[in-house]
Amino acid sequence: MTAARIEENRSHPRLPDLLGAYHLANQAERGRAVAGVSGLAGAYRVEAEDPVGAFAGDTVLLATPVGAEEPVGCVVLKASGEGRGPEIKRLWVAPGARRRGIARALMGEALRRAEAAGEPVVRLTVWKGREEPLALYRSLGFETVESWDERPDLLCLERRLDVVERLTPEAVRAHAAAGLAALLVDAVDGGASVGFLAPLETAEAAAWWSRVAEEAAQGERDVWAAHGPDGRLSGVVTLVRTGAANGRHRGEIARLLVHRSARGRGLGRRLLAAVEAHAAATGLRLLVLDTQTGSPAERLYRGAGWTAAGTIPDYAADPAGTLRATTLYYKRLG
Question: Is 139 in the same domain as 175?
Answer without folding.
Answer: no
